Amino acid sequence: MRVLILGATGGTGREIVREAALQGHSVTALVRSKAKATHLAGADLVEGDARDEQALLRALEGCSGVISSLGTPMSPFREVTLLSAATRALVKAMDDRKVRRLVCITGVGAGDSRGHGGFLYDRLFLPLLLRKVYQDKNRQEDVVRGSDLDWVLVRPTILNDKPAKGSVHAQTDLSRVHGGTVARRDVAKFVVKQLTDDAWLRRAPLITW
Hints:
By secondary structure, the protein is α/β, with parallel strands linked by helices. It has a single domain (2-208), classed as 3-Layer(aba) Sandwich (Rossmann fold). The protein has six helices and ten strands; from the N terminus they run βαββαβαβααββββαβ. It has helices at 11-22, 53-59, 82-97, 119-129, 131-145, 184-193, and strands at 2-6, 26-31, 44-47, 65-68, 101-105, 150-156, 158-160, 169-171, 181-183, 206-208. The strands form two sheets. Strands 3-2-1-4-5-6-10-8 form an eight-stranded mixed sheet, sandwiched between helices. The chain has a two-stranded parallel ribbon with strand order 7-9. Helix 1 (11-22) packs across helix 6 and helix 2 (53-59) packs across helix 3 (82-97). The protein is globular and about 45 Å long.
C-alpha cells in the first residue's frame, strides 16, 4: 500500500516512515520543507502545509491510507488550532480522493483517556503546559469520529526514545491505567499495523508498555 504520513519529520513520524517501509509499504510524506526532510530516506516528499487541502490532494495521489502523527509544541497560553484544522482539511481531501483508511495519533489525556496519565501528568503537566494542545486534540478526535472514514485513533502514553520491546498493551478499558510510557518505535509498529488490521477499527485504544 502507498501511505501518506503527516508529521513525518517529528520523532514519532520518523519512526513511522521507517516502520512503514519495513512492513512493505510505499511512503509519501507531506513536509513543510523538502530541504529539511532529506533524512526521510525512501519517502517521496511533497512540500506543503498540512492545513492546505490542495497540498493534501497532491500528496494523496495514489495513496490507499493515511497516518497522521502531527504534533504541536506546548502552548500554555496561546490557542492551538493546527491539529483540528489540518484534520478537517485531511478528511475533506481523503473524501475527494476516495481514500478510506486513517490512523490518527493523539495521546493520553484526549477524550475519555483524560485522568489516566498518572498523578504528575494529570495534575500538573497537562493542565499547566498542555491544556491548549489537548483542547485541540479533542477537537481533532471529534473531526475524525464525525467522518465516514475507516479510522483508528491511537493514544500513546508518554513517549520515550528507548529501544523497542516489540509489543504494546492496547486497551480501551482504562480503569486500571494510571500513567505509563512507551517507545516511539513500538508506537510506530502498532500504528502501521492499523493500516491493514481491523481489530481497532473506529475505536481509540490507549497504548503503553
